[in-house]
User: Fold these one by one.
Assistant:
Number 1:
Amino acid sequence: MLAIIGGSGFAKLAGLGNARREVVRTPYGDPSCALTHGDFDGHPIVFLARHGYGHTIAPHEINYRANIWALGRVGVTSVIAVATVGGIRSDLGPGSLVVPDQIVDYTWGRRHTFHEGPDRPVTHVDFTLPYDAGVRARVLEAARRCGESVSDGAVYGCTQGPRLETAAEIARMANDGCDLVGMTGMPEAGLAREAGLAYAALCVVANSAAGRGESANAISLSEIHEVLERTMGRVRRILAQAACC
Ligand code: HPA
């Protein structure tokens, strides 16, 4: 079964049929919200709002372990994570949609693994290719069928937040090879890999990253909201298509 994790601007998924909510308890505490079960044209999906339905949970406060564990508990095998990002690469301006293929993790202090604790054997997972090839292809194919242009491949740099970055931090990230900057891609993707869930992200560029393009001197938060409003329908169409293919 497919799950969709919705990020900023995507706390609800309109168009879901037969929606019902399920509260899942986990050994790691509470997920961000109850899971919503529903279907797109008869194809079942599970939806989870990463920041909670009221958008009250900051990126560094999200219980990523509980969220991923809860999805596994209800039988999810694949995840499409919708994530709002800043564009570092000059061709990834506001309104661009991107399916990244790599990650650089700059976060700290987050509970980032299931493999810890006194009675657990040391366990390493391969993370060379952090996103699942099959789910990436599914999102790209869905976008193609919708006639939506989506960039295939980018390096997602994950910062701690909740503040936005300085221009110098973005310049350093560009030097590191990052094309996008967001705050929630990790440890979510790593935990999905540990849990055996096939995971990929669909990123919505809400703004040029700090110091770039229209954000040369400041990032306009009101423009971020406008871009997300404008882009929501495109993302929803791609997700509905992806649920069916
Ligand atoms: N930086 C980090 N996260 C973001 C940004 C940004 O510029 N825009 C949207 N999410």
Note: The two ends are 12 Å apart (CA to CA).
Number 2:
Amino acid sequence: MSDTLSLRRPDDWHLHLRDGAMLAGVAPESARHFARALIMPNLVPPVVTAAEAGAYRDRIMAALPAGSDFTPLMTLYLTEESSAEDILAAHGSGLIAAVKLYPAGATTNSASGVRDFDKVREVLEAMAEAAVPLCVHGEVTDPEIDIFDREAVFIERVLDPIRRATPGLRVVMEHVTTSDAVDYVKTAGAGLAATITTHHLVINRNHLLVGGMRPHYYCLPVAKRESHRLALRAAATSGDARFFLGTDSAPHPVDAKESACGCAGCFTAPHTLSILAEIFEAEGALDRLEGFTSLNGAAFYRVAPNRGHITMRKGDPVAWPARIETGDGPVTLFDPGFDLHWRVEA
Ligand code: NCD
Ligand code: ZN
């Protein structure tokens, strides 16, 4: 087997870049290997209007290393007060690539999310009409529902009803973590796709809880049991174009993770491609890695694949830092628990 791999420059279809000092610290990590990323809008306060997205885009551009040609694809945070006019104008002008739906309270900085889905019905209809994709954080927030069941229940109670009520709406189920979600995407008609993170291909809930609690493996949606991880791995490496990479790389300062109430999020941007190459190789699917990282998402979002390629080369184990320093404090990298042999060549 060849020890080099050429990939179209990849896209990350779900990325948290934060703001301020953290943005300055992490943006170069994604820009090094990725040509584009879909930027999540869950800042405090959230990125709700086109004007806010434009200003955030400018701050991201200013945080990139000189000479970088990384393109942030912006999103708007859907609230019950969002304006269809503003969304359509922002999409029409090319400023945003999608709108993000967070059920209120589902995850980090989601307090402004949607509580009553009837209140966004008209906006969703306008989006369907104009083919603006809706990215969905697919977990119910009902306190009665067990956290490990929240994705499966969301499909049945929220996502499927929304899709039936809004024919033509293009939906990405973000960071899927269950075989239920994989099955739902596979059986749905056109217009539904899913992102899969790097870390959910690696860990199950035992990694999080056995032998001590590992806060750096805590993310939302939380990792599920092993059978679900295997379903995700099968979907990601299957070549099915409805599944593509959204790293959900979500940096938090180490003291916010290692805390009595630790934040959710795994930071994978720096070594995601090395981890993915290892996984795809283990699955005998290296020839499908490019579809997952560089082609399938672009096709769903109806943009051309990036020009240019990256080369990955296999060799001695890759040294990656345990943490990176940012102006907001150190951020711990996700530890896949196995050696990485594939490096992206400069
Ligand atoms: C994300 C974050 O930290 O912003 N955390 C996470 O665990 N994935 C939010 C999210 O995408 O749910
Ligand atoms: Zn996320």
Note: The chain has a mean pLDDT of 97.
